[in-house]
Amino acid sequence: MSAEVLVVDGGRTADQAGRPVTEVAVGVLIDAQGRFLLTSRPPGKVYAGYWEFPGGKLEAGESVEEALRRELIEEIGVCIGPAHAWRTQLVDYPHALVRLHFCKVYAWSGELQMHEGQQFSWERLPVQCAPVLAGTVPVLRWLEEEAAAPR
Ligand SMILES: Nc1nc2c([nH]c(=O)n2[C@@H]2O[C@H](COP(=O)(O)OP(=O)(O)OP(=O)(O)O)[C@@H](O)[C@H]2O)c(=O)[nH]1
């Protein structure tokens, strides 16, 4: 769990007081070879073309796991097994203040299908795709830390 706010684009001080927080469920899908899945943000969305972990906003009444399961079916065509809550990160973008709930996922069914015109890549550290979304960068650091000192 991280209490720090990541402030992105604009060079302002964290001005999150009073802004609504958008809760976002994000999946770190890890395959049998230890690779993780990154997808590019679809055309037409903010930060289109930037690479991120797949996921999306919680709808009213949804848990993080429910939202993640729904989003991944909608966006990449796979139905996930258990979502293991891992870390959270508050990110202050000019367009939104988001709380990212990162979950590790080791099991899913179905073949990857990019339903929104994204690209996908199974990655290892250091990642080869660029640019990476600012809110994704801390996750890569956490993965590095875990690789250096497995829990
Ligand atoms: N999915 C995802 N979103 C991230 C990550 N890192 C990060 O800062 N975000 C931010 O979290 C928010 C997620 O919104 P989204 O646009 O993907 O969600 P969504 O599919 O529900 O959007 P919609 O409103 O178009 O339906 C965006 O502001 C995005 O910039 C990440 O690794 N994965």
UniProtKB/TrEMBL annotation:
Any GO BP: DNA repair
Q: Does the keyword Isomerase apply?
A: no
The molecular function terms in GO held by this entry are:
8-oxo-7,8-dihydrodeoxyguanosine triphosphate pyrophosphatase activity; 8-oxo-7,8-dihydroguanosine triphosphate pyrophosphatase activity; 8-oxo-dGDP phosphatase activity; 8-oxo-GDP phosphatase activity; metal ion binding
Pfam families named in the record: NUDIX (PF00293)
DNA repair in keyword set? yes
| Cofactors required | Mg(2+)
Instruction: From the UniProt record, list the reaction(s) this protein catalyses.
Output: 8-oxo-dGTP + H2O = 8-oxo-dGMP + diphosphate + H(+); 8-oxo-GTP + H2O = 8-oxo-GMP + diphosphate + H(+)
Keywords per UniProt: DNA damage, DNA repair, DNA replication, Hydrolase, Magnesium, Metal-binding, Mutator protein
Residues forming the Nudix hydrolase domain are 20-145
Which EC number(s) does the record attach to this protein? 3.6.1.55
Similarity section:
Belongs to the Nudix hydrolase family.
| Protein's name according to its UniProt entry | 8-oxo-dGTP diphosphatase
* Species per Swiss-Prot/TrEMBL record: Hydrogenophaga crocea
